[in-house]
């Protein structure tokens, strides 16, 4: 057992060792540890004094700004700022130094910085004041957000495109509804005098000699009155609500019937038709007669586009909640200035066209909750794509 004197000696020695350790911790610089932490930071770190002179930078700051640290340390922080805004930055720095405060990352707008090669880029910067015994230091953590801003702009652009497409669809729907109402009104007003004229012509024919009844002039009158009647009927279809019953329908069968109807026209045009159905295509609840009208119109348009023959390819495909019918031709293609107006009522580039076929088709498809899309390259051909929803089992 130690004596009292020995214990006091041991305690005094331990006390001296503790005091010496405290002194060493208080006076020995922590540069190696500090520098290791600084270099491990994922963002650029730039430390300046109260006069804006760069004192310390890390490796990430070198990578961001393109300078080595020897070129930055001792220089004013404005070295890293675009020349045109340096004066503004000096004033801002002076105000900040008078009232230093912590400013977290992401507060305020993005700031422009300048690399050694003169290129500018966007940054987010956090500021933290550090008061030591003899000076004020300001720690700036710098993050290059150029790529994030690029991605954000791309996302905004895609969103703007979607909104524009949706607005265009709404505007087109409103336009179609207005034109439909006008068409129905005009059709109603024309229909009565038209039938009066047709009946009058029939009565006159009874009293005319046979050579007059069979003359070119009389045949022309009959043909043109019949044509007007057809136009009126299409104008009525444009506004008329969906007729007939909606029922589960095998669209592959509808398309096969449609292609059979168009077969004679295809042979006349020296065109080959290929149909590739999806054998797993689900039944779609629809008005089969109206969709048959849509498919026939698209097929005939495709055949008309192949004046020197070609290939018409029709495919069906099922996705999770919608089916797609593609009608592709190898025809002349559709110029951009015409494609922009394809679904506008009464717009046509055909000598005897009414400009109602595609608008009525789009109207029918829209009533079924679907849409028609068009891809076309001049000199290569066109693809009309009908997308229709269905209820999965």
Briefly summarize what is shown.
With 393 residues, this protein is an alpha+beta fold. It is built from twelve helices and twelve strands.
Describe this structure in words.
The protein is of the alpha+beta class. It has a five-stranded antiparallel sheet. Among the domains are: 40 residues, no CATH class; 149 residues, Histidine kinase-like ATPase, C-terminal domain (Heat Shock Protein 90). The chain has twelve helices and twelve strands. The protein is elongated. The longest helix is centred in the middle third of the chain and has 62 residues. Helix content is 51%, strand content 20%. It catalyses: ATP + protein L-histidine = ADP + protein N-phospho-L-histidine. It holds the Pfam family HisKA. Its EC number is 2.7.13.3. Keywords: ATP-binding, Kinase, Nucleotide-binding, Phosphoprotein, Transferase, Two-component regulatory system.
